[in-house]
Predict the structure.
Amino acid sequence: MKELMQSLREASLKAISETDSPESVEALRVRYLGKKGELTSILRQMGKLSPEERPVMGQLANQLRAEIEEAIELRKTMLGKVMLEKKLEAEAVDVTLPGVEQPAGHKHPMYNVLDQIKEIFIGMGYEIVDGPEVELSEYNFTKLNIEESHPSRDWTDTFYFTEDGRVCLRTQTSPMQVHAMETRPLPIRMIAPGRVYRKDEVDATHSPMFHQIEGMVIDKGITMADLKATLNLVVEQIYGKGTVTRFRPHHFPFTEPSCELDIQCHKCGGKGCPTCKGEGWIEVLGAGMVHPKVLAGCGIDPDVYSGWAFGMGLERLAMGEYKITDLRLIFENDVRFLEQF
Ligand code: PHE
């Protein structure tokens, strides 16, 4: 029995010294000292010993248990230290290394242009108003004097939500004229930028979603002269002093008279070039004097009040300003494109 304990001592101390994790040390504790462990099974044979031998063997067994336990604890502490060191080494931070650059984003180029325009109008005392993109056809068309048979109301041109055509995605920001007249005290000076939607195929100059800026003034004694003077001022601030403009007669159902504003091509000075498609002029916006029928429909007496309004495409403006040749680039939001501005 003494020999058995001796060989258990050697084998166990060796095995413990060779472990490489706290878990394997624990497994050895069970193997040697557990209820069904090797030391226990040796002790089971105590019964065969003479009464004189028993206490001697018992003492030896207790010593061996204590020795194995101590070896286990020592090994565990050591392995713990080694593992901690390894972990610290693996997680070491070199504070002298340069940091990883976190690129800061910036405003989309088109919104830069929008901000610039907002500034111009805020400077003239205009309010910036916001309104729904999901609109009643009543506001998008009817209250703007656009009759049922008008082609823009067609299902092939407008996104409708309901079978009866009552609700649609606004096709223009002009319904904001009506909202403003119905809800705001007079006089009104406002611009309303936002998204609009039309069933257009996507190409270099068309997208089913694009942005417009609506503008409107309603007051006593407003005339076409106010429209021209204001828009000329705005154009000069956007395109530079001395930009030549031309107000060309046009038709919109909700303004009378109506016009389109062109600027003389800044590239060729009006001679005709690829930028102006040989025209010499670049179309900038549609405008006109708010139709008396529209005023009256919003509860404003057209004999007392008058006003003018305009609608301007934002993408085209940004494309001109940043020399962007394809509209799709504005919406793809590829950082390689956006980073250039
Ligand atoms: N809403 C018109 C369009 O989308 C532009 C416009 C606005 C014209 C205001 C006159 C007055 O083309």
User: Anything to note?
Assistant: Strands lie at 127-128, 134-136, 167-169, 188-197, 209-219, 245-252, 255-264, 281-290, 306-313. The first strand starts at residue 127 and ends at 128. The pocket of phenylalanine is lined by residues 172, 174, 252, 255, 258, 286-288, 309-311 (CB under 6 Å). The CA atoms of residues 220 and 304 lie 6 Å apart.
